[in-house]
Design brief:
It contains 3 helices and 14 strands. By secondary structure, the protein is mostly beta strands. It folds into 2 domains: 30 residues; 222 residues, Lipoprotein localisation LolA/LolB/LppX (outer membrane lipoprotein receptor (LolB), chain A), CATH 2.50.20.10.
């Protein structure tokens, strides 16, 4: 009877914790590393839910091993999607330099089926669909792959908690995630998430040979609407080629009225 009362008390504490947006994992049994990894991913997703839409201007800097650089300017918009089986949507439009001005890239993330991605090339005046076989390829010459630009929906991976560790001045979880998507260019990724705010700090990408391919670092976080954290700088470093791509975001704007029509294929040709 005493044990039953104790369990009821723990469950009440968990319920209160959930209502107060705190993390509560019942300690009546030990989670497996897979269960713990999934719980961390779910909590990260829960904390970044409800922002509706956002947009930002971005400066892109591409650098090679010799230190040569090139710059691009672009705009990026996001739409949060809560529809069953669907993921978030995004639109990228390039403004500079002149030779790629008007290039636009649209992504419709999916949960259980293949994601849809389209690239509009103004020089050809046509929309090209990105096939599943090409999503591991580089996005317009950068160190980001097409699949890196797909929303990180929880169901797109299986998970495994690896360890708790310091990442700079922060205490972090390190979890491995394995793409469910068969044509992914990655065998797995290791994601470092700070314990206090559940923000991505770093992602290590491993190729199909299980070798470290790239690292994405998130820095300069700012909080918006008193809840949502966004990194102002993203740096993707390719360890195998020595190249890197840096994205620097202007302050985000949120809830500006973007909707499904803002992310239609018809808008690709008119996005510029």
């Amino acid at each position: 009877m005493k044990q039953t009362t104790t369990l009821k008390f723990l469950n009440i504490r968990c319920l209160i914790g959930i209502l107060l947006t705190a993390t509560c994992i019942p300690n009546t049994y030990a989670l497996t590393s897979e269960e713990k990894g999934l719980e961390i991913a779910k909590e990260m997703d829960r904390r970044d839910s409800g922002w509706k839409d956002s947009s930002s201007r971005v400066d892109m800097l591409l650098s090679n091993r010799a230190g040569e650089t090139s710059k691009r300017k672009l705009r990026i918009e996001f739409l949060e999607v809560k529809q069953q089986g669907a993921g978030d949507k995004s639109m990228v439009v390039f403004d500079e330099p002149r030779d790629i001005k008007g290039t636009a890239f649209l992504t419709h993330s999916k949960i259980h089926t293949e994601d849809s991605q389209w690239l509009y090339l103004p020089a050809l005046k046509r929309v090209k669909r990105i096939s599943s076989a090409n999503k591991s390829g580089p996005f317009v010459g950068s160190e980001f792959a097409y699949e890196d630009l797909i929303a990180d929906e929880v169901e797109k991976y299986t998970y495994k908690w690896v360890k708790d560790s310091n990442c700079g001045d922060l205490e972090c979880y390190a979890i491995e995630r394995y793409p469910v998507y068969n044509n992914s260019g990655y065998s797995h990724q290791v994601v470092w998430i700070d314990k206090a705010e559940y923000r991505r700090i770093k992602i290590d990408y491993y190729d199909r040979k299980q070798e470290l391919l790239k690292t994405l670092n998130y820095t300069g976080y700012k909080q918006y609407l008193n809840k949502y954290w966004r990194a102002q700088q993203l740096t993707m470093t390719n360890h195998q080629t020595g190249k890197n791509t840096q994205l620097e975001f202007s302050p985000y704007t949120f809830q500006t009225g973007l909707n499904d029509k803002s992310f239609s294929r018809n808008r690709l040709k008119r996005a510029h």
